[in-house]
Each structure stands twice: as structure tokens, then as C-alpha cells.
Amino acid sequence: MNRRRRIYEGKAKILYEGPEPGTLVQHFKDDATAFNAKKHEVIDGKGVLNNRISEYIFQNLNDIGVPTHFLRRLNMREQLIREVEIIPLEIVVRNVAAGSLSTRLGIEEGTQLPRSIIEFYYKNDALGDPMVSEEHVTAFGWAAPQEIDDIMSLAIRVNDFLSGLFLGAGIRLVDFKMECGRLWENEMVRIVVADEISPDSCRLWDMKTNEKMDKDRFRRDLGGLVEAYSEVAKRLGILSESDNPVAKSGPTLVKG
Questions:
Q1: Cβ atoms of residues 171 and 232 within 8 Å
Q2: Which of 205, 105, 217 has the alpha carbon at shortest distance from 119?
Q3: In the chain, what are the domains?
Q4: Which residues belong to the signal peptide in this entry (predicted)?
Q5: Greatest distance between any 2 Cα atoms in the chain
Q6: Is the pTM above the cut of 0.85?
Q7: Burial, 109: exposed, middle or buried (Cβ in 10 Å; 0-12, 13-18, 19+)?
Q8: Which residues does 187 contact at the CB level (< 8 Å), separation at least 6?
Q9: Phi-psi region for residue 6, left (φ > 0), alpha (ψ -120 to 50) or beta?
């Protein structure tokens, strides 16, 4: 993989040309960003944890028949993925009021919503990823009506799976962000879950204490981000209890 071609670099990941046609290598960086990268810090071990947590979630989604771009993990920081055409939307599924929803609608953080709510945001850092409606999505050609139906269906299935997964680990899934892409298979195209699902893209609260176990620890200057991500990994069985989560070389992870 020496001298491999860099395809794209984002705030938290780098995509490299894959070893086979139609594949990419997704590399997880230690960079932590918030507020569209206005706040930035490098936190040792974060990329390792996000790689393994996202691998665990995507593999389980594949196993239950939810289509994703994930193929396999390559090493502690990288995974092999299918090359997809990313749809320029962030899909946010909310179960509990928090973050911008609380600010916009004046709902107290922690309030259980009457039902899960799905929101769309246009992926554009320069514009601050503005919230958009289905009308915007179809009018500007970001996704077709049938694709929106597929995205909504995937979002509901992923939410059901994640809610149960984290509940079993004593964690409340407040909300999460996911992205989707078009996977071309000969003349056919289907919508799949892409990017990552990790504490970077989920709001996760401890069921008993409501302690935040996600990127809000960085956004809100709470500290202990790697320790919180490590606790999530431990509860999911990815990180062993005896491992030092803040070792200089990064966390030691299990589940080969």
C-alpha cells in the first residue's frame, strides 16, 4: 500500500485508492473537529477507537441485511470499503431532544420525543450544513423521490438496530447521523449506508447517569473523550476491561 493514491481527505478520515477496482481504503485520523472545523484538536487514539466501533456496527448491519459500503477491517486504523457515490445529505435520526433540536424548538435536552424524527442536512461545510426538506432534496436533484424512500427506510432500520444494541450496553441512543451512497452494480444501483457510525456521529448517554459518551465531550469542553469512547467499546465487547484506554500508542483492542 506504499505510495497509494489519496482520493479525498475530510475532517476525520482519508480515503485512498483500494487494492481492487471499486474499492477504497478508509483511514481514521485522530483529529477531533466541531462547528465545521472551527474547533480542532488531535486526540491520540480516537481514530483507532472509531475504526473499530464503526467496523463492529457496520459488520452487524451487513449481517442483518442492511446494505453498507463496509467490506472488512485492514488494520487498527483502516478498513476496506466499496466505492460509492456519496449522496450530499446528512441524515439525522433523533429519539431524544438534544443539540440543535433543543435550541431550535425550545425543548429541554433529554426530553423523549413522541416518535423518532428524521431530518436532512445539505452536506456543505461552507454553508454550515443547513437543514433542508424533501422538497429541496428533489428540486435540486440531490436524490430522487424513490431514493429518499430508500434512505428513510434504511434510517429507520439502522435506528432500530442501534437503539437495541446500545440499550443492551446500558447506553441511550439520543440521536445519530448517517450518510448514504449509490452503489453501482453493473447497470443496477442501490442505496447503501456509508461513511461511519461511531461516537463521533452518535449522541450516546449512560442510561443511569446521563453522562455523555460521545463527541459532545469535545464540543462542550467536558474532557475525557478517549475514555468515553473506550467505555463504549468496552461495553460493546470490542475493548477488554484490562486495556489502558489512553496508552500513548493508542488503545489495545480485541476481536480480531
A1: yes
A2: 105
A3: 85-206 (3.30.470.20)
A4: none
A5: 53
A6: yes
A7: middle
A8: none
A9: beta
Phi, psi at residue 122, to the nearest 5°?
Answer: -75, 125
C-alpha dihedral sign at 231, 236, 239, 242: positive
Integer angstrom CA distances of residue 33 from 151, 219, 241: 26, 8, 28
Sign of CA dihedral 90, 96, 101, 105: positive
The partner residues of 8 in beta bridges, in order of sequence, read 15
Helix pair angle (46-63, 225-235), 10° resolution:
30
Q: Which three cell numbers stand for residue 170?
A: 446500558
Please choose, from the candidates 188, 36, 191, the residue with its C-alpha nearest in 3D space to the C-alpha of residue 123.
36
Q: Which residues of the chain have pLDDT under 50?
A: 1, 245, 248-252, 254-256
